[in-house]
Every structure is written in structure tokens, then in C-alpha cells.
Amino acid sequence: MLARLSIRDIVLIDRLDLDFGPGLAVLTGETGAGKSILLDAFALALGARGDAGLVRSGAEQGQVTAVFEPGAAHPVNDLLRANDIPVEDQLLLRRVQLADGRTRAFVNDQPVSVKVLQSLGERLVEIHGQHDARALVDPASHRDLLDAYAGLERDAADIARLWAARREAAEALATQRAAVERAQREADWLRHAVEELRGLAPEP
């Protein structure tokens, strides 16, 4: 659930904090009231393409922070673990848009790539528009939808954790095997060096 949206220096918005409660939230207003600006700012926090034009005139940078409370069984937690990001009660997605066009992305105050931010955003939010692609036609989301329909989200999360543990164990095993191979090569070199020294028969 989206719990809070904070916007700083985006287009015409100097400072805005919106808190959302459980249930349906509706933003209404006349044409030009700023609804699209809010949506563009929200999309920026979810990993949308940055644009220097989003920074408010006279500001060096704009910033958008979206605070979510996804719950312990939410599939987004698996993505967090896969990217070595601690899972907490609240999930903070923050995007900084600089006036020179560059952007910076953060998840729970940890720097991440825009690609990671976008992947998390896709798990948390669907923004529907007249010409936007919907998750239903995205094959990457089909398994999550089936798991949710069957009530298997917790089981899927358990399997994902087990798979991550297996992957970590395999990486650790590969590291140890590489260390053993290095030690064997060093031992062979040392034995060869000792044999050469014996052949030279050095005397004190």
C-alpha cells in the first residue's frame, strides 16, 4: 500500500506531502490543477525516465519519495533480497532529478540503479493510461498473478528464499573450490622450487 508521497521542487510544486490511508484514494481537480504533475512525479519515483524539465524553475534539483507498506508476504521483498537490500516494514523509493538531466535513485536510502528502482516499482504499482501497456500482457507478471490467484504468494516467497539460499551456497562452494585450486597450484610451485634448490645444492 502506498502510505506517503513527498514531492520537492518538481515542475510547479515547491513542497508537497500526501498521506494515504487504507482503501481507495481519489485525487480530483479541474484541467490544469496539477493532477498530471502528481502522476509524473510519482512515476519518477517508480523508475520512469528522468527529464531535466521536471525540476522547478530556479531549483538545482527535484526530489520525489514514495513510501510503501507492502507487507511481509509481498513479492517485492524477493526483489529486495535479490539486490541485497534489507527488507523493512516500510519501503522507501526515492528519486532525485538534477537540473542538468542526471538522476539518482535510492531504495531505503541505499543507492541503486534506475533499473532496480523500475523493477521494484513494477511490482508495487500499475499506472493505467489510454496508451500504457498493462501488466496483463507482460509475460513476466503472469506467474505472480497465478500465484496470487491461487493464494500461493507465501509459498512462492518461501521457494524464492530457498532458491536464493541455494544460489548463495553454490557461490560459496565455487569460491572455496577456487581457493583450493589456488592452494594446490602454489603447493606445486613450492615443491618445484624446493626440487630446484636441492638440485643446485647450495651451501652456507
TrEMBL record:
<dbReference type="InterPro" id="IPR038729">
    <property type="entry name" value="Rad50/SbcC_AAA"/>
</dbReference>
<dbReference type="GO" id="GO:0006302">
    <property type="term" value="P:double-strand break repair"/>
</dbReference>
<comment type="function">
    <text>May be involved in recombinational repair of damaged DNA.</text>
</comment>
<feature type="coiled-coil region">
    <location>
        <begin position="166"/>
        <end position="200"/>
    </location>
</feature>
<comment type="similarity">
    <text>Belongs to the RecN family.</text>
</comment>
<dbReference type="GO" id="GO:0043590">
    <property type="term" value="C:bacterial nucleoid"/>
</dbReference>
<dbReference type="InterPro" id="IPR027417">
    <property type="entry name" value="P-loop_NTPase"/>
</dbReference>
<keyword id="KW-0227">DNA damage</keyword>
<dbReference type="GO" id="GO:0005524">
    <property type="term" value="F:ATP binding"/>
</dbReference>
<feature type="domain" description="Rad50/SbcC-type AAA">
    <location>
        <begin position="4"/>
        <end position="50"/>
    </location>
</feature>
<keyword id="KW-0067">ATP-binding</keyword>
<dbReference type="GO" id="GO:0009432">
    <property type="term" value="P:SOS response"/>
</dbReference>
<keyword id="KW-0234">DNA repair</keyword>
<protein>
    <recommendedName>
        <fullName>DNA repair protein RecN</fullName>
    </recommendedName>
</protein>
<dbReference type="GO" id="GO:0006310">
    <property type="term" value="P:DNA recombination"/>
</dbReference>
<keyword id="KW-0547">Nucleotide-binding</keyword>
<dbReference type="GO" id="GO:0016887">
    <property type="term" value="F:ATP hydrolysis activity"/>
</dbReference>
<dbReference type="InterPro" id="IPR004604">
    <property type="entry name" value="DNA_recomb/repair_RecN"/>
</dbReference>
<keyword id="KW-0175">Coiled coil</keyword>
<dbReference type="Pfam" id="PF13476">
    <property type="entry name" value="AAA_23"/>
</dbReference>
